[in-house]
Specification:
It comes from Microbacterium natoriense. GO terms for molecular function: catalytic activity. This is Pimeloyl-ACP methyl ester carboxylesterase. There is one protein chain. This protein is α/β, with parallel strands linked by helices. It has one domain: 3-Layer(aba) Sandwich (Rossmann fold), CATH 3.40.50.1820. Helices cover about 35% and strands about 20% of the residues. It is built from 10 helices and 9 strands. The strands form 2 sheets. It has a 6-stranded parallel beta sheet with strand order 2-1-3-4-8-9, sandwiched between helices. A 3-stranded antiparallel beta sheet has the order 5-6-7. The longest helix is centred in the last third of the chain and has 15 residues. It starts with a strand and ends with a helix.
């Protein structure tokens, strides 16, 4: 099989730059890598955006999704040229399930108490709500383990997630037909690690790698994350 293009999908409260250390690792190894921006407007809309992005890529694609990006690849990964999924501290949803439902089955993380809700206007003129992390809490809650000065930059440049995305159910679970791998950040204070473990077990992922890392494991442990991705590609050959 032709070596897949690796598409890295970021999550909520972050952007494509959150993948930068892993992107550098993969590029240095000679892999084709793309890191698109995710609108963070709705699960269905974000998944459709990534699906259309993937459709423009010639040849097979391996999708890797961090956090909310895991939910996005769960739906977008059903696209024909996607050959595998890698969940990185991510949500592996089942059809008909939302982020809120999956997360609600486990004790709250430190994130829930440190969210900010701000109104915005939807294209149709109706009201929507953006969700972000309190700037002063961001380094400890979301970017633990990251250099403090870098975490402060991430805090003031975070990409909010529309509240719509929390309650919208996944229309498909691509892991039912595509092989999947998972990384659990065992020191995660953003998502309860049990959410990650449960989702991966239910999805029957081929391998689960536990890393003693915070939520932004791509920032703190890029070598290990890149290895899970390249090991997945090796299994696909």
């Amino acid at each position: 099989m032709t070596t897949p293009t690796i598409v890295l999908v970021h999550g909520a409260f972050a952007d494509a730059g959150s993948w930068a250390p892993v992107t550098r690792q993969l590029l240095d190894q000679g892999h084709a890598v793309l890191v698109p921006p995710v609108p963070n407007r709705s699960l269905s809309g974000d998944a459709e955006y990534i699906r259309r992005f993937v459709e423009q890529i010639e040849g097979p694609v391996l999708l890797a999704g961090h956090s909310y990006g895991g939910a996005v690849i769960t739906v977008a990964g059903a696209d024909e040229n996607v050959v595998g999924l890698v969940y990185v501290s991510g949500y592996a949803l089942v059809e008909g399930e939302s982020l809120g439902q999956l997360q609600g089955g486990f004790p709250d993380s430190d994130l829930a108490a440190n969210l900010v809700y701000q109104p915005y206007t939807l294209p149709d003129g109706s009201d929507g709500t953006d969700v972000s992390v309190k700037i002063d809490a961001f380094p400890a809650v979301f970017a633990a383990g990251v250099d403090v000065r870098t975490a402060e930059v991430f805090a003031v440049s975070q990409r909010p997630l529309s509240a719509l995305a929390f309650g919208e159910a996944a229309s498909v679970a691509a892991w039912r037909t595509k092989p999947a791998w998972g990384i659990v950040s065992s020191s995660d204070h953003t998502i309860n690690p049990e959410v990650e473990r449960f989702g991966y077990q239910r999805a029957g992922v081929r391998a689960v790698v536990e890393i003693d890392a915070p939520h932004l494991v791509m920032q703190t442990h890029p070598v290990e994350v890149a290895k899970v991705i390249t090991d997945a590609i090796a299994e696909l050959d």
